[in-house]
Amino acid sequence: MADEHTHQAQSTQAKDTLISGVKHVIAVSSGKGGVGKSTVASNLACALALSGAKVGLLDADLYGPNIPMMMGSTAGPEQKDGKILPVESYGVKLISMAFLVPEEAPLVWRGPMVHQYLQAFFRDVLWGDLDYLLIDLPPGTGDVQLSLSQMVPLAGAVTVTTPQEVALYDVRKGMAMFQKVNVPLLGIIENMSFFVCGHCGERTEIFSHGGGERAAEKLGVPFLGRIPIDPAIRDGGDSGHPIVVAHPESPQAAAFRDIAQKLMNRLGGSEKEGASIDSLLKKIKEPFGKQ
Ligand SMILES: Nc1ncnc2c1ncn2[C@@H]1O[C@H](COP(=O)(O)OP(=O)(O)OP(=O)(O)O)[C@@H](O)[C@H]1O
Questions:
Q1: How far does the centroid of ligand 1 lie from the alpha carbon of residue 194, in Å?
Q2: What tens digit of pLDDT does each residue of 173-218 get?
Q3: Residue (of 248, 27, 9, 258) closest to 149 by Cα position
Q4: pTM for the whole thing?
Q5: Phi then psi dihedrals of residue 115, to 5 deg
Q6: Interaxial angle between packed helices 211-219 and 165-180, expressed in degrees from 0 to 180 and rounded to the nearest 10
Q7: Which residues contact 92 (CB under 8 A, 6 or more apart)?
Q8: Residue with CA at minimum distance from ligand 1 atom 16
Q9: What percent of the chain has pLDDT above 90?
Q10: Spatial contact of 201 and 281, defined as CB atoms under 8 Å apart
Q11: Is 65's C-beta closer than 6 angstroms to any atom of ligand 1?
Q12: What is the average per-residue pLDDT within 14-37?
């Protein structure tokens, strides 16, 4: 028993020191692939950065790392004193497996390798002081999720889902896994909730209606908000200009900002609430103008 306590204390201490300058580590998860987890992670990271927070985004989707493309940063990171300097894009510090392996290389990792790479992402990257470090996970429940929960103290996990039943089934499994490893559930984000026709304005619920909110109610976790399915969001991901920075005045960008604000409120962040669109536009032009 004493051994167990000693082991627990040691592992908690190791967890705390691995990224000591980071206030809140947030896992962005999904039960299913393709529901828009990386899109949400990159837009939330930008929204948090725009609110004045110091933000990092770790692309831990080792099997399909898309964050550099979505954040418009394909040039790899530089090194300093044997450590890796994260790449900066739209005020967000980024690291991804995509920076470290050739583009065409197959990404096949065994469990122990996953653990080692993840550890290197924390131990060997100069993250510096951050208010939030968002971690874009691979879909589902696997080695990365498990390793991560053992490696760093997570402020919690958000789960991205589409509203239909088949996606929600996997949400429940994913959330149960986080509960099992004592990671707080910060809430559910419903993506691709509805489509508004750009010509006639008609709203179509392509993937059904309200499933994310119902799942949140059932699981007793906060429902953080819904994001429409919209070509501008897809385009932002493909072109490396997340909609939050490309079209900050759009309702889609406002939806992401609203979710970011809810997360900050939940975690006790001190960033300024409800910055005006004008000040956001100015910010985007100034520090990120060179992107
Ligand atoms: N709200 C949205 N409206 C339009 N397109 C979207 C939206 N969200 C995501 N997409 C698009 O859907 C595709 C999948 O998104 P994304 O890569 O973010 O999903 P994912 O859940 O991270 O996938 P995976 O983890 O399986 O790689 C991308 O082409 C992205 O641009």
A1: 14
A2: 888 889 888 999 999 999 998 888 888 888 888 877 888 888 888 8
A3: 27
A4: 0.87
A5: -60, -45
A6: 30
A7: 45, 46, 49, 55, 56, 57, 71
A8: 36
A9: 51
A10: no
A11: no
A12: 87
Task: Round to whole Å and give the CA distance between 23 and 19.
Answer: 9
Whether domain 19-285 has CATH 3.40.190.290: no
Query: 7 CB contacts (<8 Å, ≥6 apart)?
Result: none
The ligand 1 atom at the shortest distance from the C-alpha of residue 234 is 31
Q: Give the 3-state secondary structure percentages of the chain, helix then strand then coil, rounded to 5.
A: 45, 20, 40
Two structure tokens written together for 187:
């809430």
Name the residue of 38, 197, 230 to mutate for ligand 1: max ligand atoms within 8 A of Cβ.
38
Question: Which residues are registered as beta bridge partners of 27?
Answer: 135, 157
Residue 42 CA: which ligand 1 atom is closest? 18
Would the CB of 252 count as within 6 Å of ligand 1? no
Whether 211 contacts 167, CB under 8 Å: yes
Rounded Cα gap, residues 136 and 199, in angstroms: 34
Closest atom of ligand 1 to 235 CA is 31
- Give residue 270's identity as a one-letter amino acid code: S
Is 153 in contact with 181 (CB distance < 8 Å)? no
pLDDT digits (tens, 9 = 90+) for 131-167: 999 999 999 888 888 889 888 999 999 999 998 877 7
One-character DSSP codes across 31-65: SSTTSSHHHHHHHHHHHHHHTT--EEEEE--TTS-
Closest ligand 1 atom number to CA of residue 70:
31
pLDDT value of position 99 = 86
Q: Over the chain, what is the mean pLDDT?
A: 84
Beta carbon of 241 within 6 Å of any ligand 1 atom: no
**Residue with CA nearest ligand 1 atom 29:** 234
